[in-house]
Amino acid sequence: MQKLVIKGRKEISGKISISGSKNATLPILAASILGDHVRIKNIPLVKDIFTMIDLLNFIGLKTKLIKKENIIEISNNSKNINTLAPYKLVKTMRAGVLVLGSLLTKYKKAKVSLPGGCAIGTRPVDLHLFALKKLGAKIKIKDGYIFAQAKNGLRGAKISFPSISVGATENALLAAFKAKGKTILNNCAVEPEIKDLIKFLKKLGAKIHLKGRSISISESKIKNSKVVHQVIFDRIELGTYMIASSLLAKNNFMIDKIDPAIIRSEINVLRKIGVKIIQKKNYIIIKKSKRLKNINITTKPYPGFPTDLQAQLMVLLTQANGISKIKEDIFENRFMHVPELRRMGAQIEIKDKTAIIKGPTKLTGAEVMATDLRASVSLVLAGLIAENRTVINRIYHLDRGYEFLEKKLKNCKAEIKRI
Ligand code: UD1
């Protein structure tokens, strides 16, 4: 099994370019089932994306991945379509459940494996199914599978989500594309990745309008002309490297291929802590922080501070002066990095949904275990600032979502290698 070995306390210099967003690419790939021919640019070459491509191939689409250019071309003109997403593909990547909405729209039926829980929480799909039922789908759960059907097509409805869900909003958008009449979705997630999906669906012919947390979709026809789309940058990867450089930058550190306007809340939070950020149109400059201040923060749906940056922020706060608190309000079990960080010397206590971090503390290298994607990268950050050597086990989690992690860091003079 592969491990990462990091020799900490090395300054980093130069620049990092941010890859395309994994969480934007996944629903756009699921949406490509709707089109005849699409070309998607700036896709990150990470495991979750490969799994979604395997799923599209399994369904019967033709995919051509041009790795050198981070482009995928997908055509859907097969007569032999399998409206099935099997357990083996959905269990490793929950976003597989997003093909449900597209399959229902295009083929009026779908059989999709229930994704089950995962390390960070139970993660049910009840909100996805709630929306699909409101649109007229007949849903049955049997043998671990969701059987969905809409023999006469779906019909528009007014749907108010009882709580905000990224995936449920995406599945509802995909299902509402051709639904008769008009659909209004209230209390939607409005993450930048959802806005990117809407942009893509509009190119496919969807009549969609977003206002606040409401999205209206009028019955639309799928265009059969070729659709080209460039995926937005990965704001979580950006946040991760902003934190790394604020702790380790030798001089001015540049992070480019981004749009800082999209990460206003992250920039505000980091500035409050004392991180020095110079903001330009499509890049930012980070300076090494001299004195970091404590902060109290709660993770929230966008435009709030993202749960996907909670673990990385915690590493930064181990270096801040005073007691910080992070309340995790999205997932019930997302503090699994805490025992590992403690083994590296961090002083962190957990009370219910809140982590209490005492800083600043010197971290020292240790052998640690990655438990999920974002927890894993927080251990990489901790290893980079810790004294001596850190060995991270189970790094397959990292490969699910960070494109060229070691290469990007090595290019900036960090000492990190995979063994
Ligand atoms: C997406 C992101 C993930 C991010 C999360 C929250 C992708 C591929 N993944 O995950 O990286 O951490 O948003 O920003 O984009 N919930 C229910 N019932 C449902 C659906 C969700 O109770 O049917 C709950 C979840 O358990 C969780 C909360 O709602 O507590 C938010 O989850 P959701 O926004 O749906 O996350 P995902 O779409 O799975």
Q: What would you report as the Rg, rounded to the nearest angstrom?
A: 22 Å
Bound molecules: uridine-diphosphate-N-acetylglucosamine
* Intertermini distance: 9 Å
Largest sheet, strands/sense/barrel: 4 strands, mixed
In one word, what is the shape? globular
- What is the count of structural domains? 2
Stated plainly, the CATH topology of the largest domain is called: UDP-n-acetylglucosamine1-carboxyvinyl-transferase, Chain
Written description of the protein model:
A hairpin with a 2-residue loop joins strand 12 (about 205-210) and strand 13. The radius of gyration is 22 Å and the shape is globular. The mean pLDDT is about 95. The strands form six sheets. It has a four-stranded mixed β-sheet with strand order 22-23-1-24. The protein has 14 helices and 24 strands. It has two domains: about 5-20 and about 235-419, Enolpyruvate transferase domain (UDP-n-acetylglucosamine1-carboxyvinyl-transferase, Chain, Alpha-beta prism); about 20-230, UDP-n-acetylglucosamine1-carboxyvinyl-transferase, Chain (Alpha-beta prism). With about 425 residues, it is of the alpha/beta class. Bound molecules: uridine-diphosphate-N-acetylglucosamine. The site of uridine-diphosphate-N-acetylglucosamine has 22 residues, from helix 1, helix 5 and helix 6.
